Structure formats: structure tokens, C-alpha cells
Amino acid sequence: MTDDQINDEIMRQLGWEFRCGGWRRGEDEFVNASDAPNFAGSLDAMHEALKTMSDIEFETYYDELRDQKSASRPTEKRRHLLSCEARCQAEAFLRVKGAWKE
After folding, report:
1. Could you tell me whether strands 22-25 and 17-19 are parallel, antiparallel, or unpaired per DSSP bridges?
2. Would you tell me how many other CB atoms lie within 10 Å of the CB of residue 74?
3. What's the pTM?
4. d(CA 100, CA 95)
5. Helix axes 86-97, 55-68, angle to 10 degrees
6. Where are the domains of the chain?
7. Residue 57: left if φ>0, alpha if ψ -120 to 50, beta else—which one?
8. Which residues, including other chains, have CB under 8 Å from residue 59's CB and lie 6 or more apart?
9. How many whole angstroms separate alpha carbon 84 and alpha carbon 102?
């Protein structure tokens, strides 16, 4: 998925709908398309998205991040979890939600 596809899909997963040139959630919330969060490039944006996950989803997310690193040493895997960039977090988030497209 491209960064734009990732960003759009995470917005949808968070309950936003794209219409009238921007993202809407309900009748009162609106974000211009150009002002929407950049989940694929911002750890802060991903932090906010991760807050919406249930405990079970977060455990699966954690496992997904851990599995992304194919290193054989446990220390390398832990280091990967702590230094994972926003894009890999976004991918893991969408995989947990069943929305990742190859």
C-alpha cells in the first residue's frame, strides 16, 4: 500500500468517511483532506490511532510488530519494537484490523 492508501484506510478504520473534499465523522466533525493525519509518516498520529484499539487488538498488534522482524535474537526483536517507524506501525495496525492490502 502507498502512504496515501495507508492514511486513507486508517481514517476509515477510525470511523471517518471521505466526502465533500474532506473527512467527516458524524455531522459535526470535519477535517480537510490536506489537514488529515499522516499516519504513515507520523509517530504522533499513530499514537492516537493506537489508543482506539481494544486490549485484544493491541496484543495482536504487538505480535504483528514482533513478527515483522525476522532476526533470530530476542534482543534484536525487542529493539525493533522500540524503534519501529510510523509506517511499520501503520501496517501492523491495518493488518490487525484486516484492512491491509498487498
Report:
1. antiparallel
2. 9
3. 0.87
4. 5
5. 130
6. 3-97
7. alpha
8. none
9. 20
